[in-house]
Amino acid sequence: MNLIQRAKKFRTKKHLGQNFLTDSNAVNSIISAANITPDDTVLEIGAGIGFMTEHIAKYAKKVYAVEIDTYAIKELQKLPFKNIEIIEKDILKTDISQYKTDKPLKIIANIPYYITSPILAHLLGEIDDTDNKNRSAVSEIFLMVQLEVANRIVADSKSKNKEYGLLSILCNFNADTEFLLKVPSGSFYPAPKVDSAVVKITPSVKSKYNPQNITMLKKILKAAFQTRRKTLKNSLSIGGFEKEIINKVFNNLNLSDTIRGETLSIEDFCNLSNEFDTQKKEGF
Fold this sequence. Notes:
Elements: H1 3-8, E1 20-21, H2 24-34, E2 41-45, H3 51-59, E3 62-66, H4 70-76, E4 84-87, E5 105-110, H5 116-124, H6 133-136, E6 138-146, H7 147-154, H8 166-173, E7 175-183, E8 188-189, E9 196-203, H9 214-226, H10 232-238, H11 243-253, H12 266-281
Helix pairs in contact: 9-10, 9-12, 11-12
C-alpha cells in the first residue's frame, strides 16, 4: 500500500492542520538532507501517522515522535520499530532539552502553518532569551512550512517582495538558515492550497550578534516592523522613541531620513540599538 492509499484510510482533522506528506521522493530528500546516523537522536514534531517517522527510525538511534492526535497515535503505535517513543503532548508545552543525551538533538518537523511562529520561538527562543535551553539542546532543525513562510525565514535585508521581517530576524539572530527544497502542494494528502518548502535551521548556543542592550534592540525591531510602510524615523517615533533622540542617532550614524526598517540588516539594527543605548546612558 503506497503512502497516498494509507493517508486516505485515515480521517484527517482540518482544525489540526493535518496534511500528510505522501511524496516518497520528498520524504527521502528530507531524510538525506538530515544525514541521520546511528548515533543520532531525532525529535519529530507533528509525526502524524508515521510516514516520516518510519524512515527516520531506520537510521536513527532513537526517535521521539511528538503528536497530539490520539487517533494518529494509534497508527504510530503500529510501526514495527523499538527505537520510537511517542510523546503525546503539545510541542509548545514540551521541554525539548529533557530529551537531549550526550549529543544534541536533530529536529524534523512538518508543522501546521498557523502555529509556525510560536513553534519557532519555542525552539529558538526570542532574541532576548540568551540562555534558551531548547536551542542549546538542538544541533539542526529541518522544518517543513508554507513556501511563503520559508522565504521569510531565510530572508535578509536584500531579499525581494517584502519577505524580510521579524520572523527573519528571530530565526537568524541565534541561528543560520538555509532554503533546501520546494515541495508542491500535490505532495500532500489532503493537498493544501499552497506549496510548501523545507528549510534547515542550525541554532547557535551564542548569537553572532552582541548588542549592548538586547531589550533596546527588541523595542527598535518591534517599532520598525509594526509600521513597515512608514519611514524608520516615523516608525520609531510611533514606537515611543523621542524625536530629538531619533534625530541625534540618525545624524551620528549618517542614516537617511527616508530609510525604511526593512532595508537594515541585523547588524545595522544592532548598531542602531547601540547608538540609542549610548544616547540614553549619556542622558540626552
